From TrEMBL, chain A:
It is found in: Cell membrane. It holds the Pfam family OppC_N. The keyword NADP does not apply. The lineage of its organism: Bacteria, Pseudomonadati, Pseudomonadota, Alphaproteobacteria, Rhodobacterales. Keywords: Membrane, Transmembrane, Transmembrane helix, Transport. This is ABC transporter permease subunit. It comes from Halovulum marinum. Residues 179-375 form the ABC transmembrane type-1 domain. GO terms for biological process: transmembrane transport.
UniProtKB/TrEMBL annotation, chain B:
The keyword Membrane applies. This is ABC transporter permease subunit. GO terms for cellular component: plasma membrane. Belongs to the binding-protein-dependent transport system permease family. PANTHER family: INNER MEMBRANE ABC TRANSPORTER (PTHR30465), OLIGOPEPTIDE ABC TRANSPORTER, PERMEASE PROTEIN (PTHR30465:SF43). InterPro entries: BPD_transp_1_N, MetI-like, MetI-like_sf. CDD domains: TM_PBP2. The chain crosses the membrane at residues 9-29, 101-128, 140-164, 194-213, 247-274, 294-320. The keyword Protease does not apply. It is found in: Cell membrane. Residues 101-317 form the ABC transmembrane type-1 domain.
Length: 389, 330
């Protein structure tokens, strides 16, 4: 701790009394190290961190990882089921070799119902290659790439590892691109909520009195109203001719307008409890301004709590976006989010024909679970002094 | 107690006013209004008097006046039961709400009753038999309820019922009972449909209740008064139900206030997916077609329902726990 205080002085003395090398000896660990140690004990949270890391990695490199163009319509393959995936194949001389491939489709017509259905054709093997040259994509809107992690040779063959939708678009690729929107909207929403929560909650807790009273009434009001109809109402009022990007930001803003209350509550209660601490009084007596007291002395004391609360609030944002998009009031096609994808599964007939349309749902569940576990772990670790187990 | 009740009712009235303001704001949000759409229609039909007509209609409906004046007019109309007119369904809004409110409330009440009937025993069980198989199961159930969006659960159940029985369950009644009078057959038919939304809503809402009850009860179970009662030879089941559960329930009743908005929210989405003959699908349709007067009235209505529900739970709470009505606990 004394080291931290020294650092705030801009003396050259720091060079002479260089801080000791950061060796992990118990008793001299920093707050961050303590939190990390407490967090690591929480196994489920660690696993969740890895899962979420992977998901965000996929979202970030969607262009490379998606095997197909997510918008490419393929009229010949509507509602094609997920292809059978095999790792090994028989050689010419009868042995087994590692050659990942999928089985092509054979179209069968049901004579009674007069419906087409796709069945795997064991004779049609489509081999999967690493980084083949296929369709062109703009990477991050900056440069063009034409190689993707996996793909098949030839324009006539298709690769539908998770099946295709109503327009014959590859569900896996759409899922991967959808991850980008769905996962980022949670983060963007939480950043706005966090700003609102910290500012409003801080003002409320620090100044108290009438301001506090008014803000508390407003928070109480927002929390006592069911959020979904409000979200729906605001989202429905968005102009129809807005671009995808405008829509995205508007939806994020709408979600945050209602989502900030929990964060503000946490920040306020922390401010209230810290206000009477000795070190805060000392700073005030020392003549520090409000801004400095809040920024330098109070905020660092509960940053970890804020992060934990924020993490626990992200799932709510994602669920809200998914529900809104699912209902047709949130993001609209051609924008791809997991909620937009689930919209395809809305009617029972489509679902009965193509149950794989529910795949995005599984991804939502995994993401929400992981974020909850991660948030729980962070919350437990946020106060590493509390428990001495 | 009287003062407490008066206080809560005043708060509720204030909240209702705030809510009505927000709803009116939502009504006014979409650019343009009904009149300009109507005028555009006239102009498209080649009627040159459109502009003049527009002015007259605007004057008549007070659309030229400032926002606050319009709001006050709307509010005054609300108070005398005039909720506006739905241009899409060509019906007064109040008539639409009236025709569906009964079923809406019925489903909601059923779901909330089942929710508590499921959550409370599970919560007690998993606290008393901590770390047992049942407790683990309850935890898993809770997490699923937390992580599976309601609409997804509804879709999944619909799909599974379709796969296993071959029937498509949608709505609350089969075709032959849809407009029939209430009879035994209709009640049975209703029950065979209503379980899906009830299960979906209950699963989503049960998780936080189970968690809170379990945590509270765990705190209470080791208190001296429990040990004393046990030492005196009181039967375990009677002991737990008699003392610690009652204490642990108190903060739970307090949470009804914030559980209710979430439950109502989830029931709205569920009702839309399952296409129940409640108010929710109408809300979605009105929003999609920007029939804002209907939508605003519905949002207001759902909000007021939630506020009333919260008020009732607050009063119940004060009745159970004297500390609250005397203002000793916050």
């Amino acid at each position: 701790m004394s080291r931290d205080q020294d650092m705030t002085r801009t003396d050259t003395a720091d060079f002479e009394f260089a801080p000791p090398a950061p060796v992990a000896v118990s008793g001299t660990e920093t707050q961050a190290q303590l939190i990390w140690r407490a967090f690591r004990r929480h196994k489920l949270a660690m696993v969740s961190l890895v899962v979420l890391g992977l998901l965000y990695f996929v979202a970030l490199f969607a262009e490379v990882l998606a095997p197909n163009d997510p918008h490419e319509v393929n009229a010949r393959y509507t509602y094609a089921p997920p292809q059978e995936f095999r790792l090994f194949d028989r050689d010419e001389d009868g042995g087994w070799a590692f050659r990942p491939h999928v089985l092509g489709y054979k179209v069968e017509v049901d004579q009674v119902a007069l419906r087409r259905s796709f069945v795997p054709d064991p004779d049609k093997k489509i081999y999967i290659h690493l980084f083949p040259r296929t369709h062109e994509t703009r990477m991050w809107g900056l440069f063009t790439i034409d190689r993707h992690l996996i793909g098949v040779d030839g324009r006539r063959e298709v690769l539908f590892l998770m099946g295709s939708d109503r327009l014959g678009r590859d569900l896996l690729s759409r899922l991967i691109y959808g991850a980008r929107i769905t996962l980022s909207i949670g983060l963007a929403g939480i950043v706005i909520s966090l700003l609102m929560g910290v500012i409003i909650g801080g003002v409320s807790g620090y100044y108290g009195g009438l301001v506090d009273n008014v803000i508390q009434r407003i928070i109480e009001f927002i929390r006592s109203i069911p959020p979904i109809p409000l979200w729906m109402g605001f989202a429905a009022a968005l102009p129809r001719d807005w671009s995808a990007l405008q829509n995205y930001f508007a939806i994020t803003l709408i979600l945050s307008l209602i989502g900030w209350t929990e964060l503000a509550r946490v920040v306020r209660s922390r401010f209230l409890s810290l206000k009477s601490e000795d070190y805060v009084s000392a700073a005030r007596l020392d003549g520090a301004g409000d801004f400095r007291i809040i920024w330098r002395h109070m905020l660092p004391a509960f940053t970890s709590h804020i992060i934990a609360t924020a993490t626990l609030a992200i799932p709510g944002m994602i669920l809200a976006e998914t529900a809104l998009s699912f209902l047709g009031l949130g993001l609209q096609s051609p924008v791809i989010s997991w909620g937009v994808l689930l919209q395809e599964a809305q009617n029972l007939r489509a679902l009965a024909d193509a149950p794989w349309l529910l795949f995005p749902g599984a991804f939502i569940v995994v993401t929400i679970l992981a974020m909850n576990f991660l948030g729980d772990g962070l919350r437990d670790a946020a106060d590493p002094y509390g428990d001495t187990q | 107690m009287l003062q407490f009740i008066a206080n809560r009712i005043l708060t509720m009235i204030g909240m209702t006013l705030m809510l009505s303001f927000v709803c009116f704001f939502i009504i006014q949000l979409p650019p343009g209004d009904v009149i300009s759409a109507y005028a555009a229609e006239l102009a498209a039909a080649g009627d040159s008097s459109g502009g003049q007509m527009e002015e007259m209609l605007r004057e008549r409906y007070g659309l030229n006046q400032p926002f606050v004046v319009q709001y006050l007019k709307w509010l005054r109309n609300l108070l005398v039961g005039d909720l506006g007119y739905s241009f899409n369904l060509s019906k007064p809004v109040s008539e639409i709400i009236e025709s569906r409110i009964g079923i809406s409330l019925l489903v909601e009440m059923l779901a909330i009753t089942v929710l508590w009937a499921i959550a409370v025993p599970i919560g007690i069980y998993s606290a008393v038999r901590r770390y047992s198989v049942g407790d683990m199961f309850a935890t898993v159930f809770g997490f699923i309820g937390l992580a599976v969006p309601n609409f997804l659960l509804a879709l999944l159940i619909m799909y599974l019922v379709y796969v296993f029985t071959g029937t498509a369950v949608e709505g609350l009644f089969s075709a032959e009972y849809a407009n029939a009078r209430w009879s035994l057959g209709r009640i049975l038919d209703f029950l065979s449909h209503v379980w899906i939304p009830v299960v979906v809503i209950a699963t989503g809402g049960a998780a936080p209740i189970i968690r809170v009850l379990r945590a509270n009860l765990l705190d209470e179970l080791n208190k001296p008064y429990v040990v004393t009662a046990r030492a005196k030879g009181m039967k375990e089941s009677r002991l737990i139900m008699r003392y610690p559960v009652r204490v642990a329930m108190i903060p739970l009743v307090a949470t009804v206030g914030w559980v209710l908005p979430t439950i109502i929210s989830s029931s709205i989405v569920t009702a839309i997916v399952l296409n129940l003959p409640t108010l929710s699908p109408i809300l979605l349709r009105s929003l999609l077609s920007q029939d804002m007067h209907l939508a605003g009235a519905l949002i207001l209505f759902m909000g007021i329902l939630t506020l009333v529900g919260t008020l009732v739970s607050d009063l119940l709470l004060a009745w159970i726990d004297p500390r609250i009505r005397t203002g000793m606990a916050t």
